[in-house]
Amino acid sequence: MRKTTRNVLLAAILAIGLSAPSNAVGSAFQSLPDLSGGEGWLNSPPLTREGLLGKVVLVDFWEYTCINCLHTLPYLAEWYRRYKDDGFVIIGVHTPEFTFSANPANIAVATKRLGVSWPVLLDPNRTLWSRFDNQVWPHEFLYDQSGNLIENAEGEGNYQETERKIQAAIKSRDPQFHPPPLMALLPQDNYTKPGSVCYPHTPEVQAGIMRGAGPANLARYMNPSVENNFADPGSHQDGVIYLHGFWRTTDQAVISAGNDSAAALKYHAIQVVAVMRPEEGHLTRVRVTQDGAPVPHQDAGADIRYGADGFSYVDVEQPRAYDLIMNKHFGQHELSLAPARYGLGLYSFDFESCEVGSDR
Question: Do residues 101 and 63 touch, judged by C-beta distance below 8 A?
Fold first, then answer.
């Protein structure tokens, strides 16, 4: 399923000068559903609907490679820190997008790396996803002490309104509760500044031949089950992957099969995140260029590093989302990834394009 993004919503908000609206409670069910049917819990013994009565419960559907989910985590972490001793519980239902992100060991590593300390319910078979009639990541369902649904919020944003409802629900169960001031929006989420703008960006790009269109230069005669030698035509359309050298295509990914492989992508956005995996289990260094040159330091994402030769690269050592590009300004660019050895699995690219005033 497509991950939701804030950009369309925020562009509309900024265009008409309104604050982010609260999402209406519109679920087909109005009470906390049964939580059985998952495949285990992290950070907690199993929790039940009956055992949660009397608590304020936020059920968050997330996926550890999802760019939009990653953006929500600082808010969830702060709410959990603030209110966990006041009868507030977060349950992160982890429903995977990729085969590797269903692996409990990978999820455990990711939760530790990302600082997710609240209970996580593993949902590899989409049992909870279906029971909640969910469609997107991230998606928050907030329930009061009686198990009644009081907010149903899809995607990023709406943070302060959600926290107000958390505080009101806690106050309802404990009249002696004195709420702190609302958490301030992080700088990257504060779109009230003059000059803030959200641009249209390249949609999410899936690399696999089943879930996406696959490589743009995958010829009809190529057998997708074996290694193929690709030739990059040099001229690229926006939003599709072009391969060079030996690659193997799968339903979910393209996997480098030589030592001179490369993948190119033309895009328009500010931020670029790539979901990658070291398929052979060993660290794979990937040289990253933008517009044919090393990524400028001011445009580098958090995972970009620089060698003594000045070239920009990323070390892919875990299956996760890698933050490659955070351009200072919106624009169209050519991105290239060149793994130093075989075994790089490239799954998807995600994009963001909201500025908080730096363009004006």
Answer: yes
CA 230 to chain CA centroid, nearest Å? 30
Residue among 3, 122, 14, 142 at smallest CA distance from 71: 3
Cβ-proximal residues to 134 (8 Å cutoff; 6+ apart), any chain: 61, 95, 128
Rounded CA-CA distance 47/35 in Å is 7
Whole-angstrom Cα distance, residue 207 to residue 271?
18
CA distance 311 to 326: 17
Distance CA 236, CA 215 (A): 11
Q: Is the CB of residue 91 less than 8 Å from the CB of residue 60?
A: yes
pTM of the model: 0.89
Sole residue written with tokens 């966990």: 84
- Report how far residue 110's alpha carbon sits from residue 320's, in angstroms, rounded to the nearest whole number: 8
47: nearest Cα among 93, 83, 104: 93
CA-nearest of 46, 39, 57, 45 to 96 is 39
Q: What is the pLDDT along the chain (360 residues), one digit of tens a residue?
A: 544 445 444 443 333 333 333 354 545 568 999 999 999 999 999 999 999 999 999 999 999 999 999 999 999 999 999 999 999 999 999 999 999 999 999 999 999 999 999 999 999 999 999 999 999 999 999 999 999 999 999 999 899 999 999 999 999 999 999 999 999 988 777 655 555 688 999 999 999 998 767 899 988 778 877 899 999 999 999 999 999 999 999 999 999 998 899 999 999 999 999 999 999 999 999 999 999 999 999 999 999 999 999 999 999 999 999 999 999 999 999 999 999 999 999 999 999 998 766 544
- Distance in angstroms (rounded) separating the CA atoms of residues 182 and 150: 18
Asked if 154 contacts 136 with a C-beta cutoff of 8 angstroms, the reply is yes
Q: Match 């001793």 to its residue by tokens.
A: 85
Q: Give the separation between CA 205 and CA 157, rounded to whole angstroms.
A: 23
Annotate 216-240 with b (16+ C-beta within 10 A) or e (fewer): bbbeeebebeebbebebeeebeebb
